[in-house]
Structures are given as C-alpha cells and as structure tokens.
Design a protein that fits this description.
Keywords: Signal. The chain is built from 3 helices and 11 strands, in the order E-E-E-H-E-E-H-E-E-E-E-H-E-E. The chain has 193 residues and is an alpha+beta fold. The structure holds 2-acetamido-2-deoxy-beta-D-glucopyranose (NAG) (3 copies). The site of one 2-acetamido-2-deoxy-beta-D-glucopyranose has 4 residues, from strand 6.
Length: 193
C-alpha cells in the first residue's frame, strides 16, 4: 500500500463540465456493458465486484509496448501507488450517498487484508472492473494497451476521497480520478443499476 503517494489533496480537486468521453462515462459504466463475472466482497459479502465486457472499447494502440516489453514475456504494468487527479462532475444533485461508498471502501480493505490487495485489469473490451453497493458505484478503467495491476487499498482511498468531496455542496454529483499519465481512471458515481 502506497497511499501516501496518491495525489488526493484538495488542491487537486477541480470541477469539470466535460472531459473527453473516454474519461467520463457519466451514469453508465460503458455502452452495451454486459457482466462477465461477479463476486461479493466485504465482511458482509454485500459489495458486488464485477468484471464487465464493454463491446465498444477498442484496444488502444500498442504504442509504448516495445519499450516496456523487454524480452517478450506478456507485460503487466503495476500502477499501484501511481498519482491521479480528481475531477468532480457538475452539477449538484443525484450523487451517491457517501455512506454507501464507505461500505465499498471498507469491503475493498477487508478483501485486501484477507485475500489479496492486488488485482489485474485487462485491456480493450475487458478493461473495466466495477464495485457497487446500494446508491454508490465505482469503476476502474485501464486505458493502457497492456494489462495493469492495481491495489484495492488505493482504490478504497480514492473512493473515500471522491465520495464526500464531490457532493451537492461542491456543486457536484460524483467524480473521477484520472492517472497523471492518463493510462487509467477511477470513477465514483450513483449506482443506477
Ligand atoms: C526476461 O524474462 C525473464 C524470465 O521470464 C525475466 O526474469 C526477466 O525479468 C525478463 N527481462 C525483462 C527485461 O523483461
Ligand atoms: C494476488 O493477485 C495477483 C494478481 O492476480 C497475483 O499475481 C498474486 O499472486 C496474488 N497473491 C496472492 C498472495 O494470492
Ligand atoms: C479479462 O481480464 C482479466 C484481468 O486481466 C483476465 O483475468 C481475464 O482472463 C480477461 N478475460 C478475457 C475474456 O480476456
């Protein structure tokens, strides 16, 4: 766990009306999404963790691959501890209940402590992992052409930051945290499922 290196300071918080579509999927995880697998995590087994299929996601160009690949073994880029910048989505109203988001964050920490902090995220149509409980939904999107690994303790810290800080009093209804190199992002929003 390298939470201290995540850029989550209030100074990094800013409001956005529109970001490029791939970095803001307001109110839906992805067009045409279907569930590939789901499991329930947390001490009470009540937070749904889903691997979804996003049929319209192209696999990004494998531009940076050769420099990372070394000697031909399938690369996995570990982005645990990488910095990201928070954006709140305007306008106010209809955001998730932060208490429900806290249940998700606690379940992630529970899983981290009891099973594994690290998880893998695929590419292209297989680049999205979703966690949801009651009114709150959060998802991780890998925008890299290679598989990534990330850690649940960092995801939990981001949920804990966005949920209470992108609310109606901030003229917001959820938000996201976009990696400094834009190769992944995490969104927190209202669960409409
Ligand atoms: C090359 O492959 C070996 C064995 O699979 C691995 O231990 C080593 O780290 C790899 N080197 C690079 C530069 O990726
Ligand atoms: C945790 O998950 C990662 C990614 O799937 C895997 O490489 C690692 O072996 C797992 N660790 C344990 C202790 O199961
Ligand atoms: C989707 O990605 C996960 C995580 O990298 C991987 O374990 C799984 O095999 C992939 N599924 C498909 C259908 O590619």
């Amino acid at each position: 766990m390298k939470v201290t290196s995540i850029v989550l300071a209030a100074s990094s918080l800013f409001l956005v009306n529109a970001t490029p579509a791939i970095m803001k999927r307001d109110q839906e995880v992805c067009p045409g999404q279907s569930t590939v697998s789901e499991t329930y995590i947390g001490a009470n087994h009540n937070v749904k963790l889903t691997q979804v299929h996003c049929p319209e996601n192209p696999t990004p160009e494998r531009r940076a691959l050769s420099s990372r690949q070394g000697n031909g073994t399938a690369p996995v880029v570990d982005v645990c501890g990488a910095t990201c910048n928070t954006n709140c989505f305007t306008p106010s109203g209809g955001g998730p209940n932060p208490n429900d988001c806290s249940v998700i964050a606690d379940a992630m920490r529970y899983y981290s402590q009891n099973v594994n902090d690290t998880f893998l995220i695929g590419t292209g149509t297989n680049n999205t992992v979703v966690a949801q409980y009651s009114t709150c939904q959060t998802f991780y999107v890998n925008q890299d052409p290679v598989e990534q690994s990330y850690c649940l303790t960092d995801w939990a810290a981001i949920v804990d930051f966005i949920a209470p800080n992108c609310q109606a009093t901030q003229n917001a209804h959820g938000g996201n945290c976009v990696a400094a190199d834009q190769q992944w992002f995490i969104q927190v929003q209202t669960n409409t499922a």
